[in-house]
Write a structure and sequence with these properties.
This protein is of the alpha/beta class. Helices cover 26% and strands 24% of the residues. It has a seven-stranded mixed beta sheet with strand order 13-12-11-14-15-19-16, sandwiched between helices. Strands 3-2-4-1-5 form a five-stranded parallel beta sheet, with helices on both faces. Strands 6-7-10-8-9 form a five-stranded mixed beta sheet, with helices on one face.
Amino acid sequence: MSDPWLHIVGIGEDGMAGLLPATRAVVEAAEVIIGGDRHHRLSEAVTADRVAWPSPFDALIDTLKGYKGRRVVVLATGDPLWFSVGARIGRALDPSEIVYHPQLSAFQLAAARMGWSLPDVETLTVHGRPVEQMIAFIQPDARLLILTTGAETPARIARFLTERGFGASRMTVLAAMGGKDEARIDGVAESWDAQVPAFNTLAVKCVAAPDAALLPRVPGLADALFQHDGTMTKQEVRAATLAKLMPMRGALLWDIGTGCGSVAVEWMRAARYARAVGIEPRDDRRAMAAQNALALGTPKLELIEGRVPEALNGLEPPDAVFIGGGLSVEVFDAAWAALRPLGRLVANAVTLESEAVLIDLHKYHGGQLIKLQVNRAEPVGAMTGWRPLMPVTQWSLVKR
C-alpha cells in the first residue's frame, strides 16, 4: 500500500480562510498545486508550482502521475467527491494514495439559502454535460438544485420548463456563495431574462400548469411523445418490457433494432446514470431516436449504425439486452454470450416467424414466455369500441 502523496482539497469562495487548520497546512506545504484559474486565485498566497487544468481534461490523470513523489494538491470547488474531479481521480488512482479534504458543497450552500431539505431535492449537474439531461427531472412540485455550465444555462432551462407547461416555475440563481460577492437572482421561467454570473448554481421549484406535460420516470410514456414512423414498442408493451429489463443505476442496455429509441430512452430515464446503446441500420430511425433522446432528457443515448450480430462486436458488455428487431438465433447467441452475470434479456416478436424463433429459444433456455394483447377504446362512428393492437409475444430470462 502506497503512502498518500496526493491531496484533493475542496475550497470555497472564502478561500484559504475557510479551510480547517489541518487542511490549510496541507495546501501551504504543497510543492505543486493543480486547479482552475479561480482555485489559484483563491489560494494565491501560497508559494508552490502552479499547474492549470490540462487540455484536454482527460490528460489530468497522466499529469498527476507525472508528479508522483512530490507533495501535490488538487484544488476543487466544495466537495471534491460530489459531481467533482475527486471521483474521477479516485477511479484512476489507488485510493490509498489520495487524501480528500471536503468543503461545504454548492448543493449544501444552495439548500441553506433556499431553506430546502437536501433529502427532498434532486441534485443535478449539467456542468460540462448536455443541459438536456435535466429534462427528465421536470415533475410537478419537484425541487431541483443544478450545477450549471455557464451564464446561459438558466435561460436554456427556463425554456425547457416553459415548453413543457412549467413556465410558472420559480428559479433562483445563486453565485459566489460564501464570498464577499455573493449574489442571488430570482425569477420565473416563462419570463426569465436575467443576466447572471458564469459560475452559478440554479435552484428550481417546479410549478405545473393544468395542461403541463406529465413525463414520469416510471416507464410507459405516451406514444405521442415520441417521433416515430408507426413501428415502435407501444406504450403498454413498453412498460411491461422495461419491467423485465429492470433499469438500475449506471447499468448499460443494448437496444437491438432500436427504431425510434423508445425503449432505450425510457431505460435511461428510469434510473440515475443508466446508459444505453441503440443499434439501428436505418438512418431515418436513428435520426428519430436522437431527437427523442434530446426531447425527453437522455442526450447521452449512443446510436450505432449496423446490423446484428456484427454490430455488437467490440461493444462494452451489457447489463440488459432488448431485442426489438433483427431477431434470430445468431443474434440471441451473440447477445447472450456478451451479457453480464445477472443480466436481463427481453425479446419481443409480432410476426409468426419471429414468434417461432422465441418458442424454440424458450424450449432450450427456459425463461418466461408470455403473450401481450392490448385493446384501446376508440371511436366507432358515434359510439366507442375496443380496437386491438397487434399481439406481442415476449420472452424474458435472467443470466444466472
